[in-house]
Design a protein that fits this description.
The chain has 350 residues and is an alpha/beta fold. The protein has two domains: 210 residues, FAD/NAD(P)-binding domain (3-Layer(bba) Sandwich); 102 residues, FAD/NAD(P)-binding domain (3-Layer(bba) Sandwich), CATH 3.50.50. It is built from eight helices and 15 strands. Helix 1 crosses helix 8. It is elongated and about 65 Å long.
Length: 350
Amino acid sequence: MRAVAQSSPTLNKRVPHNPLPADFLLSRQGHMNPIDIVIIGAGPSGLACAIEAKKHGLSSLTIDQGSVADAIRRFPINMTFFSTPELLEIGGVPFLSSGFRPTRVECVCYYQMVAKHLDLPLKQQTLVTGLRKVTEGFEVSTKDSSFLARNVVLATGYFDTPNRFDVPGCDLPKVQRYYTEPYSYVGRDVAVVGGKNSAVETALDLFRAGARVTLIHRGGKLSDGVKYWILPDIENRVKAGEVRGLFETTVRNIKPGSIVVEGQHNEEILNEAVFVMIGYQPDAKLLKQLGVNIDDSSLAPIHDSSSMQTNVAGVYVAGSLAAGKYNNKVFIENGRMHGKSIVESVLRSR
């Protein structure tokens, strides 16, 4: 019978999973059976690795500090994906959407359903605190337990670490680094900082809900990478004065009731909320613990693109983490392919 993604009234429903055998847990004496592949990150790329491992008879465990597809769960509530459903499928499980492009809710439900349907071993709401090389492979440590792995795949994405925004007042409660919904900002003065897709979409969503929006961008124009069907919309809103656009302008200071900008525009603006949508970057802390080399320019872990293996044998990267700060080069539709390359490499090394 064909499995399909079904809508769910909640995104917080616990995803049942195959419990790990007790001998996978590291005992106080350090004795355990190694897991063939431990995957850190239960997004689409991480799940695709687990699926490939299971297909080839390898044991695996996928660990995530949140839930399955947790980054997608935290995307804006009304978000619609650019990709069509068939380009987001993993594990041969059909993804049926109610529209031409799937919504955020449909994507989260689909990936959670796949994890349950394929009975993938998962450990959710669990933060990996350390990785170290040991004789048998790698020790993967969490707050409550440790696991021994022959191979480790890091598929942690980039959505947990916003790019730096160091201006006075950036730590005020009204300054947000993530955007979910516009409804609490209706009739209020809000500013959006940035010039790429996330900033443009946030500004438009807030405007349409009834907020008074100022879009602040340090460049002379919006990014060429803004989605082609959105760019004319924001340009027309700015031209009509419905969204105030301040270009070649930066934020100098943020105060409780205003913001001060400088550059092409030098003024103090009434403000109740600031959305700093200037992108995110991967966290390389775990990679560095294992001695993985990081490119200084791109912040990407250095790896073989044919196998996704890093300079440390047995350590792999998958998904957008592999692209460093250029995370627009790896999407779900190409990141989901990394699992096949990784598992083929693992099998060759046995």
